[in-house]
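Exam review. A common question shows you a sequence with its structure tokens and asks you to describe the fold in words. Practice with the pair below. Do the first one on your own.
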Amino acid sequence: MSRTEEFQELRPLLFSIAYRILGSVSEAEDAVQETWLRYADSPTEPRSVKAFLSATVTRLSIDVLRSARVRREAYVGPWFPEPLLADPYEDPERAAELADSVSMAALLLLERLSPLERAVFVLREVFDFGFPEIASAVGRSEAACRQLAVRARRHMTEGRPRFEADRSERDELAARFFDALREGDVLGLQDLLAADASMAGDGGGKTPQLARSVTGADNVARLLAAVFPGLALVDVTFEPREVNGQPGAILHDRDGKVLQVLALDVLDGRIQAIRMVANPDKLGHVGPVGDVWAVHRELQEARRAARLDR
């Protein structure tokens, strides 16, 4: 097998490691590409290609995360991970760990860890790497990595999200939610939301977005019903999709361009959280990005015209 073939076989794993460490599709792809360049330029063949590539992409991701954390501290409004529509790595034996670890809630929880803790947690708890491999990847002793793993596991366990285990029930609930959303059915939305449900948006200061998080089923339902049904006036459509392993949707303008991605957290038959990513810098991998401001202005004009016609 050639180096190119070996790399392509492991590429899904490398991307999945990098994405969980970074929470960014574009940065994860860059880390994977740089890993390939280093492998291609290596004068010797590593004893274990998987170990070499995994260690390389982990180190690169840690370096990127350290600088990214500084930028995120100055981020305008809530910061959410870049939405992931499909995880390329599959492992039936670790399907549950893989699905839970890629959710928006889990990635936001990982943000609380140091870059080293995050990398160790991802390699150990998600991908089941041994401590010798982890130590080589992060440049620390096995004993130090065990301590990092204990601290990371404690932080994650304290706030680790739980999700609806029955996929069919979860998807059926999401379908009812989007139907109620299109119709502006306040009572229907309230019935689907947890009492302490929350909604927040990530626009990065570049699109119209919520000024702050909204909490409580009544508040969230009324805001959703006031905003989303009117989008039909300007031909905005919803495309239900799985987002970060959970139910979600992509909002498109009339030309099919991406305006926003919604992700839902579902537990105990209710929607616990709604996260909306509208920052255009985070949507390019989803598809061509539309002009949210133009849609917003058109919607305001359509609503004014509708009021005048009454």
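Now try the second one, then compare your answer with the model answer below.
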Amino acid sequence: MVCYAYQELIKNIKADNQMPVLFVGHGNPMNAIEDNRFSETWQEIGRLLPKPEAILCISAHWETWGPAVNILEKPRTIHDFGGFPQELYDAQYPAPGSPALAQRVQESVHSIVISADSDWGLDHGCWSVLRRLFPNADVPVVQLSLDYTQPARFHFELGRELACLRKEGVLILGSGNMVHNLRRIVMVSDDFNEAFGLDWALEASKQLKHLIVEERYEDLIHYQSISEELLLAVPTPEHYLPLLYSLAVKQDGDQMAFFNDEPLGGSLTMTSLVIGGA
């Protein structure tokens, strides 16, 4: 079920039941420092959300051979991009890590061994969003990597094993983009954030939202066989897979609401999702 007023959905969430879930289209790294309609919505949602005990983030920008979870007490802010203003490289997000949550992730997953990583910090798929959701950087954050050797079903099933963390006060955050084809970007003005979508991107977005609303997870797992539009929308899986993690932890009785549901640059969408129950 989808409740289209995300503010109302979040306000009705009872934190003592289980934490909500987010999938966020993170888009341009500049959203971390620019005030625009996307970053302002992230800020609003951060004010409305019950404060989590910790955050588990699955970002499009950490891929590994075999899944890993970072165990650092003080994860570094990773500036994994190029060609941006110095102000963005100067931005930091000094949130603490949580070795305890990392251990809970390892304990919760029985289908495969989750490796402990002591090098990776918080990449921009993670911190650019959290910098707006929780600007005080006072909530512990752990990242779980994407195993690039595995198909979509593996990621969905792994996500299901993480659902128990919601009842422990953990906010699960998937960060990517539903439609993400950088090779087909079309700039219609100097403003990258001007809403514009090519016909195939708009159709792909429509198809994905329909499947999400209908909870047709098998189709979402087999997205490559649905349409030519989705093949263009998801030319590589890393920005799509975090969506499957967020959907996998949805529970009976949860409602869903879309936000930041706009196309950009012709071939990207910022469409995001909040999941939670009263």
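Model answer, second protein: The chain has one domain: 6-276. DSSP finds ten helices and twelve strands in the chain. Full marks require stating both points clearly.
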